[in-house]
Amino acid sequence: MKYKSTRGGTPSLRFKETVKMGLADDGGLIIPEEIPVLNMSKINGFSSLSYQDVAFEIMKLFVDDITNDLLRNIIDKSYVSFDNKKIIPLIKKGGLYIAELFHGPTLSFKDLALQFLGNLLKQITEDEHRALNVLGATSGDTGSAAIYGIKGAMNINIFMLHPEKRISIVQDLQMTTVMDNNVYNLSVDGTFDDCQFIVKSIFSDVAFKKNFNLIAVNSINWARILAQIVYYFYIYSRIISEIGYTKINIVVPTGNFGNILAGYMAKRMGMPVNKLLIATNENNILTRFINNGEYAVSDVKKTFSPAMDIQVASNFERYLYYLYDESSEKIISIMDGLNRDKRILFDEVILEKARSDFSSCSTNNEDSLNMIDSFYKKYGYILDPHTACGVNSTYHADDISNYPTVCMATAHPSKFSDTVQSACGKEPDTPYHIKQLFDIERKVYSVDRNIDVIKDFICKRFS
Ligand SMILES: *Cc1c(COP(=O)(O)O)cnc(C)c1O
Question: Does pTM top 0.85 for this prediction?
Answer without folding.
Answer: yes
